[in-house]
Design brief:
The protein is an alpha/beta fold. 46% of the residues lie in helices and 14% in strands. The strands form three sheets. A five-stranded parallel beta sheet has the order 2-5-8-1-9. The protein is globular.
């Protein structure tokens, strides 16, 4: 099983050069049945990563460009009156896909952003009192521009908490960027990508991740991290129980992608910055950020 996962990761690394850790984190987020938030400047490969994941896994893919005039119905769909049957017929929106790319999600108003809340948490949407189930698997990748850029609306804490992981791609290294300049256009590479595994295989991997063994000592370590965050004045209210569940699920996915049959504390530490940093509320007037607080928590909590 680990050989096939290695092949998938290697294929993705060929598309997104010099970003092996980011690719593996995104892959693990999908294995853990979560949703991914990518925050970075335009042009560093956020959309490329989403397209490559969808192609490799053969997933039905839709993209929505979030803008200031986007309405919830533009994402969810709406009921349109059919003159023949003289009834309202529901027309599904782009969210009814196995993978949805919510591009520049923080350029839309909070009302439009909220269209994703129920879908990401429950795997369903409710329109006009009727609940519609979303496809399985259902994976949201949202890209976000830095908040200092003009025309952005910050995501509220409730929205951020729906994302299992948050990551930044950053600039590639010089050698990787030189290879990009000399190589084939990324869009052509993605266009020629063929699915490597079936949806059934992906669901099988996801089930294995959920059932991967986590010892009580590792769970105690996760609880120690949560408790430490709640004791730090600079971390606001600290991490919620949902954050602990997210940390365990991502550690299971990280261990499974590495070919192990159990989670070790190093797996928790490997994913912690991308799982809990965006969930840590910072206190106004202090210089600590979510990432620096995460590093401080990991550094001060001993491994059991």
């Amino acid at each position: 099983m680990s050989v096939a996962i290695t092949d998938v990761l290697a294929r993705l690394d060929e598309i997104l050069l010099g970003k092996e850790r980011a690719v593996r984190l995104a892959f693990c987020c999908l294995l853990a049945r979560g949703h991914l938030l990518i925050e970075d400047i335009p042009g560093v490969g956020k959309t490329t990563l989403a397209h490559a994941l969808a192609k490799v896994f053969g997933l039905d893919f839709r993209r929505v460009q979030f803008t200031s005039d986007l309405l919830p119905a533009d994402v969810l769909g709406n009921a349109i009156f059919d003159t023949v049957s003289r009834q309202f017929v529901f027309h599904p929106g782009p969210i009814f896909a196995q993978m949805l790319l919510a591009d520049e999600v923080n350029r839309a108003t909070p009302k439009a952003q909220s269209a994703l809340l129920e879908a990401m948490e429950e795997g369903q949407v409710t329109i006009d009192g009727t609940t519609h189930l979303l496809p399985v698997p259902f994976f949201v990748i949202a890209t976000q521009n830095p908040q200092r850029q003009i025309g952005t609306y910050p995501l509220p804490e409730s929205q951020l908490d729906r994302f299992l992981m948050r990551l930044e791609l950053g600039f590639p290294g010089r050698l990787a960027e030189k290879e990009m300049l000399a190589g084939q256009d990324r869009r052509d590479l993605i266009r020629n990508l063929q699915p490597m595994i079936s949806v059934e295989q992906l669901l099988y991997w996801q089930d294995n991740v959920r059932n991967l063994h986590v010892a009580d000592t590792v769970r105690d370590y996760i609880l120690d991290l949560l408790e430490k965050s709640r004791q730090m004045d600079s971390a606001g209210a600290g991490l919620s129980p949902r954050a602990g569940l997210a940390l365990q699920r991502c550690a299971q996915a990280w261990a499974y992608a590495a070919g192990r049959e159990m989670v070790v504390p190093e797996d928790v530490q490997a994913v912690a910055p991308n799982v809990i940093a965006h969930r840590l509320g910072t206190v106004t007037g202090l210089e600590d950020t979510g990432l620096s607080l995460t590093e401080k928590i990991i550094r001060t909590v001993p491994v059991r």
